[in-house]
Design a protein that fits this description.
The chain is of the alpha/beta class. 40% of the residues lie in helices and 22% in strands. Pfam families: ROK.
């Protein structure tokens, strides 16, 4: 859920301990170092109730009380509350050339990341084997008291929301792949699965450039194509079957390149990371350095006409796609991640110029365009949110359920 927190969401008259405990933990999770005084003001609960709730969260291993907050200008210093680093999610993001595995703690902090590179797109069974081996090593090095709450699985493809089955991930060659259930059986943990760009949108809304933005469009470009997530009026748009956000299949060129969806001229078929890598002349073992290598070529004058043409072509088609989705969705901000941010950095001002058009009331006229941080971290942080959501909704109940499994 992405709705902006309302003033005074708690209630001293509310007999639901679960509601108040959830309200406080959500604030602690989303606001690093929040003080008891801030919790009191934001929730409308009295100080003694906040003290009891924080004490319970601390006892559950979900919050940590730290040094006094001396930043306050008036009144007594207030104890600061942080999300516990001991509450963890194991997150997995398989792609055509790498399987990323990480531990993420409450508050969206990445603790440990392993990127297992593959020579080809891995099968579902291979992903399970890789994750099992990596997690085994991670688990043995965890300090005492640290606990993994579940697995967040970010997939570059269509995911069925009720059971986490990957209906189709064309770039991986998967169809009806029960990766969620396989991972759950192998690890003995609950598994929560969603499209990778959708979880990226969750991360941006919770901790990134989209924080506090009620109407947000997130577009991510990776090895498997382009995906997206849409937040409207503070809520993630899922669609009837959970497939909303397939923005990579927005039509941008008539008679264009064939797409894996069966159509042609789709955004992800025309605007690709592979074309950039080829134009830069980057060896396969250095793909992670694409942004640095491309910008260096442009700055030192070693870029050629082909590279400049590829950048110009892709930015032009990206603008076509963005015009379409902005006209449909009317966002106030757009966040571009993955190789899409590289395109924008490679030609400053070019995307804005391509978006310019005739007419006094263009839907994209006042849209703020932001660049997501470099790397895959936002996908991993967003995948962790899949695990933490049921924990945030019912802290004590979720932990009791884990203990009973």
């Amino acid at each position: 859920m992405f709705a902006t927190a309302r003033t005074h969401p708690g209630s001293n008259r509310d007999s639901s301990r679960q509601h108040n405990l959830s309200t406080v933990l959500r604030l602690v999770h989303s606001t690093a170092g929040i003080s008891r005084a801030q919790l009191t003001r934001t929730t409308g609960l009295n100080r003694s109730t906040i003290a009891v709730l924080v004490a319970e969260l601390s006892q559950l291993g979900l919050a940590v009380e730290s040094d006094l907050d001396t930043a306050q200008l008036h009144g007594r210093p207030s104890i600061k509350i942080d999300p516990s680093p001991a509450a963890l999610a194991l997150v997995v993001n398989p792609d055509v050339d790498v399987v990323s595995v990480a531990l993420v703690s409450l508050g969206g902090h990445i603790v440990n990341t392993v990127r297992f590179h593959t020579v080809r797109a891995p099968s579902g069974v291979e992903v399970v084997n890789i994750v099992t081996a990596v997690y085994s090593g991670m688990r043995t090095s965890l300090p005492a008291g640290h606990r993994v709450m579940g697995v967040g699985l970010a997939i570059p493809g269509l995911v069925r929301t009720d059971d986490g089955t990957v209906i189709e991930a064309p770039h991986l060659g998967w169809q009806d792949e029960p990766l969620s259930s396989r991972l759950g059986e192998a690890l003995g943990l609950p598994v929560f699965t969603a499209n990778d760009a959708v979880v990226g949108a969750r991360a941006q809304a919770a901790f990134g450039a989209g924080r506090g933005v009620a109407d947000l469009l997130y577009l991510y470009g990776g090895a498997s194509g382009i995906g997206g997530g849409v937040i409207s009026d503070g809520r993630l748009i899922r669609g009837a079957a959970g497939f909303a956000g397939q923005l990579g299949h927005t039509h941008v060129r008539t008679g264009g390149t064939a797409c894996t969806c069966g159509s042609s001229g789709c955004l992800e078929a025309e605007v690709t990371r592979a074309a950039l890598i080829e134009a830069v002349g980057l060896p396969s073992g250095e793909i992670e350095n694409l942004e640095e290598a491309l910008l260096e070529k442009l700055q030192d004058g070693s870029s050629n006409d082909e590279l400049c043409a590829v950048i110009s072509h892709q930015i032009g088609l990206l603008a076509v796609g963005l015009k379409t989705v902005m006209s449909l969705l009317n966002p106030s901000a757009i966040v571009l991640g993955g190789f899409l941010r590289i395109l924008v950095r490679a030609a400053p001002g070019a995307l804005e110029e391509a978006l310019a058009g005739c007419g006094p009331r263009r839907p994209w006229e006042n849209v703020r365009i932001e660049l997501a941080p470099l790397g895959e971290d936002q996908i991993l942080i967003g995948a962790a949110e899949l695990v933490f959501e049921p924990l945030l909704a019912d802290p004590a109940g979720y932990l009791q359920g884990l203990a009973g499994e």
